[in-house]
Design goal:
Blueprint: H1 2-5, H2 37-57, H3 66-87, H4 89-111, H5 127-148, H6 150-158, H7 168-214, H8 225-263
Helix pairs in contact: 2-3, 2-4, 3-4, 3-8, 4-8, 5-6, 5-7, 5-8, 6-7, 7-8
Length: 268
C-alpha cells in the first residue's frame, strides 16, 4: 500500500490516490550513498535466517528446546524431502546446504509481504529472482559437467539417447534451449510473478477498503463496500502466507530436480 500512498506532494482534493513522481523515491535513502531500502531488506532477510538457526542450535542438547526442535524439523524437511528425496543420498547431501539456504532466504523474503513493518516481498523485484535462478543454473550445469564430463553432459543434451534417430536433432535442440535458457528464465519469472501479483492485489484491496470506509463520515453510503474489500484483503493476506511458503518450496524443489537431471545420466 505504501507504493500507492507515498508521495512527496499530493492534493487530496484532486487526487484520490496519491502517487510519487518516481517509484525510486520509495527505495532511496538520501542519508546513505549507494544503499537503498531494498538492499537493507535483502540483508535483513539473510540476517533473520542466520540468527534463527544460530539461536536454534547454539546450545544443542539431546532433549531439544522448542526452538531447536523447530530448526531441526525445518532443516530435516529440506534435507529429507528435497535434497535426498529428489537428488538421492549420494549427491543430495552435497547440495543440501545450498538448497536449505535458498529455501529459507526466499521464504523469509516472501513473508516480508505480510510482515507489518515491511509489507513488501523482496522477491517481487525481478533482479533478485534472476540472480537466484542464475546461481541454480550455474550449479546444475557445473554438476552435470563434473558428473558426466563436458562432452558427455552436453552430448546427452544435443543427441539424447533413447530417441529415434530422425527426431534426435529436433529433440536435442529443444532440450538444449530448455536447459540453457528456459530453466533459469522460468525459475525467475515464476517466483517474481506470483509474489508481485499477490503484493499488488493485496495493496489494492486494502487501499480500496481504506478509501471507501473513509468516505462514510461524509454520508456516502457506497462506503459500506469498504468492509467487503477489507474482508477480501484479509483473505488475500492469509492466502499470501500460503503462497510465500509454496513459492519458496517450488523454487527449491525445481532447483533440486535440475541438479538431479544433471548428475544422473539416466535422467536424460
Amino acid at each position: 500500500m505504501e507504493l500507492i500512498l507515498a508521495a512527496s506532494a499530493c492534493d487530496p482534493e484532486d487526487q484520490i490516490i496519491c502517487t510519487p513522481a518516481s517509484v525510486n523515491e520509495l527505495f532511496e535513502l538520501p542519508f546513505v550513498g549507494g544503499i537503498n531500502r531494498y538492499m537493507i531488506l535483502c540483508f535483513v532477510a539473510a540476517l533473520v535466517v542466520v540468527v534463527f538457526f544460530y539461536m536454534a542450535f547454539r546450545n544443542r542438547s539431546l532433549v531439544p528446546s522448542k526452538l531447536q526442535a523447530l530448526g531441526e524439523a525445518a532443516l530435516g524437511f529440506v534435507r529429507n524431502e528435497i535434497a535426498i528425496g529428489i537428488i538421492g543420498r549420494e549427491h543430495g547431501l552435497k547440495y543440501f546446504p545450498y538448497l536449505a539456504s535458498i529455501f529459507f532466504f526466499i521464504l523469509v523474503g516472501n513473508l516480508m509481504e505480510v510482515f507489518p513493518l515491511t509489507l513488501f516481498p523482496i522477491t517481487s523485484r525481478i533482479g533478485l529472482p534472476i540472480f537466484l535462478a542464475l546461481i541454480t543454473w550455474v550449479i546444475f550445469l557445473f554438476a552435470g559437467v563434473r558428473a558426466q564430463g563436458f562432452v558427455g553432459y552436453f552430448g546427452h543434451l544435443v543427441w539424447p539417447p533413447g530417441v529415434p534417430t530422425a527426431l534426435k536433432p529436433l529433440v536435442g535442440l529443444i532440450e538444449l534451449v530448455s536447459v540453457i535458457l528456459v530453466r533459469p528464465f522460468s525459475l525467475a519469472v515464476r517466483l517474481f510473478a506470483n509474489l508481485a501479483a499477490g503484493h499488488v492485489m493485496l495493496a489494492l484491496m486494502l487501499l480500496s477498503s481504506w478509501v471507501f470506509i473513509g468516505s462514510l463520515p461524509s454520508g456516502n453510503i457506497n462506503g459500506l463496500w469498504g468492509f467487503l474489500w477489507a474482508a477480501l484483503g484479509l483473505f488475500i493476506y492469509l492466502f499470501e502466507i500460503l503462497v510465500s511458503l509454496l513459492q519458496a518450496y517450488i523454487f527449491t524443489l525445481l532447483s533440486a530436480v535440475y541438479i538431479q537431471t544433471s548428475v544422473e545420466v539416466e535422467a536424460h
